[in-house]
Design a protein that fits this description.
The chain has about 280 residues and is mostly helical. The chain has 8 helices and no strands. Helix 1 packs across helix 7 and helix 5 crosses helix 6.
């Protein structure tokens, strides 16, 4: 193993261990939430993964972003194609009879008018003054919700078109609320999976295809392991409050262990699994 190779993997282990220890240790000090600590641990592992040859990570970002934008352009064309059908579906929803909703709106306006006009000097006028804008806002919210729900239902019904019975037609309105909201749930899932996630997933796939390597994966294992050993050792031997010198000491030991684990992995462990990162002797 040449000196440059030693330094390369030792530095990778040190940086990976420090990144994981800073992120995870910070969460351990700042919060008692198990969920946040777990998220911080995953973020630390991912940070250690990206820390190896960080220049390659930076160079992979522009092509990944370009792939996302290109996918969003395709998604935009799909949405534009579906816009007409969605608008028609929303109009049909507003035209369809919804006796409970309409009755509540009409009753609300009627009560508000009576409270403000018939009893102008009564204390109930305050209720009427509040009820009128409430009814107006409710009507606006209802129209907006109708468009959103019908848009989602249009996606859902299109997805299930081959398996949907003819009498359950979104355009005809011959269906129940249970069927409608089933389409809404499926439509929201289809939208995020087939539209947004497809665009984002293309960029992520491009990014990881450019940066992934077995060496980077080793850093994501050895660095966090070193950080856990260092923090675990400190927690075992120290029972008092955490001081700044203690944090520095934990980071130092994490870096030393990260370098040691990385070199041992490269030299002895990885070759047993068929991974040879060192120049082979002739």
């Amino acid at each position: 193993m040449t000196n440059n190779t030693w330094v390369k993997y030792a530095v990778a282990g040190v940086v990976g261990a420090l990144v994981f220890t800073v992120i995870t240790g910070g969460a351990l000090l700042l919060t008692d939430s198990i969920f946040i600590r777990c998220i911080a641990g995953l973020a630390g592992i991912f940070g250690a993964y990206l820390s190896f040859q960080f220049g390659d990570v930076l160079r992979a970002i522009p092509p990944a972003c370009a792939a996302v934008l290109e996918s969003f352009a395709i998604v935009g064309s799909d949405l534009k194609r579906d816009a007409g059908a969605i608008i028609n579906a929303a109009k049909n929803f507003l035209r369809a009879p919804h006796p409970l909703i309409y009755s509540c709106l009409v009753l609300g306006f009627g009560v508000a008018w009576w409270l403000t006009s018939v009893t102008p000097d009564s204390e109930l006028r305050i209720v009427g003054d509040l009820l009128i804008p409430f009814c107006v806002l409710s009507a606006i919210f209802y129209c907006c919700a109708a468009v959103v729900l019908w848009s989602a239902a249009a996606f859902g019904q299109e997805y299930l078109k081959e398996n949907t019975q003819p009498e359950y037609d979104l355009e005809k309105g011959s269906y129940g609320y249970a069927t409608f909201f089933k389409w809404v749930g499926i439509g929201i899932g289809v939208f995020f999976l087939s539209r947004l996630w497809r665009a984002i997933g293309v960029g992520l796939k491009k990014f990881f295809r450019l940066v992934h390597s077995s060496e980077r994966l080793m850093v994501a294992v050895d660095g966090p392991f070193a950080g856990l050993v260092s923090m675990g050792g400190y927690a075992y031997f120290n029972h008092g409050p955490v001081q700044t010198p203690d944090c520095v000491l934990v980071l130092v030991f994490a870096g030393i262990l990260g370098a040691a684990f990385m070199l041992i992995n490269v030299k002895y462990v990885a070759p047993k699994f068929g991974y040879h990162f060192l120049p082979q002797r002739s």
